[in-house]
Amino acid sequence: MRRRIVAGNWKMNGSKDLAKSLVGDVRSEVGSLANGVEVVIIPPALYVADVASLAGVDLKVGVQNVSQWSSGAYTGEVSAEMAADLGCQYVLVGHSERRQLFGETDDVIARKVERILGCGLFAMVCVGETLEERDAGDAEVVVAAQVRKALAAVEPGQWERVVVAYEPVWAIGTGKTATAGDAQAMHAAIRKVLCDMGAPAEEISLLYGGSVKADNAAALFAEPDIDGGLIGGASLVAEDFVSICRSVPAGH
């Protein structure tokens, strides 16, 4: 059975007070969930230590990005080794905001994935197409290429620490969401690409992200190839985030 995961990406939001209140509220609720969902909090790097100290055994902790280098004269960068040292289990990599705003290429993302897995962490790899690419009928081709390139260096024994998050760029922070059917179709296509790469595709968790909210999460998570979600804005409100976590069906 694939792991069911709901991850909250705080993006560039947060404070020590928010970490204390939000993580405490989420932790107090998710410990009683009966659906077996794995809940991950991914704050800005400056608050990882605060979140890790509050997470307890019921929450996993991630970081939003790491460098493709392990150490050295790279001012402002954070390494995968540092993330592991602080108690992170997950690293988010390849988010469309990193691609679009910071010029990260598929090659850079692949090098980051290699570093993340080499440090024993889980790589949560984001892929997704723009509205223009979808309208042109190229969505599956674009996403398939991103998957192949980002995961090209994954070794046979590392696939169990790979998670793929499909986030259509046109649905991130826009209020627009892919229909459950559209999201399922892309997740099925991603799983086929993974199979073609020789990965144990049926064992790899695939998440959907892009304006996921409490009122649409259940329909998305009911699809057979959607194993949870990567949540943005709704992860900053404990009640909404916990509701989304509850929406993952048990035994999915």
UniProtKB/TrEMBL annotation:
InterPro entries linked to this entry: Aldolase_TIM, TIM_sf, TrioseP_Isoase_bac/euk, Triosephosphate_isomerase, Triosephosphate_isomerase_AS
Assigned GO CC terms: cytosol
Main location class: cytoplasm
Keyword Thylakoid included in the entry's annotation: no
Subcellular location: Cytoplasm
Active site, UniProt feature: 95, 167
Keywords carried by this UniProt record: Cytoplasm, Gluconeogenesis, Glycolysis, Isomerase
Task of the protein: Involved in the gluconeogenesis. Catalyzes stereospecifically the conversion of dihydroxyacetone phosphate (DHAP) to D-glyceraldehyde-3-phosphate (G3P).
Name of the molecule in the record: Triosephosphate isomerase
Organism: Marinobacter gudaonensis
UniProt lineage: Bacteria, Pseudomonadati, Pseudomonadota, Gammaproteobacteria, Pseudomonadales
Designated gene of the protein: tpiA
